[in-house]
Design brief:
alpha+beta; five-stranded mixed β-sheet; about 35% helix
Length: about 120
Amino acid sequence: MIGRILFVSEVTPEAGSRLVSTLEDILIVSTSRNQADGLTGLVVCDGLTFAQVLEGPTLALEACWGRITQDPRHRALDLRAHDLIDARTFWRWSMCGLYLSPLDDALLRPPDLDVTRAAHRPERC
């Protein structure tokens, strides 16, 4: 059985002060660990907030969530979705990361980031 979690969290001040290296560190570790655990996903950061989707075997997903809740780069974690799924959306990526610049914030506003519509778009990373 595979599951999906979607959460948001605040970037801590320390992590935010070195945001590029923080995101790189997250991607390096999570890519390696996710490959070993059979997890896939996407993390997006705008400098203040992380938004992340993880998919995979439910036990591995729960263990990963447990590690994330202890990660000092995150605070005010909010688990927005925790579901069983039939198929992965991010099947090609052990972890993909995107940093949203102020220009992206100006261009992308709800409903531009509608997750239900995004599942039907071609994947890019």
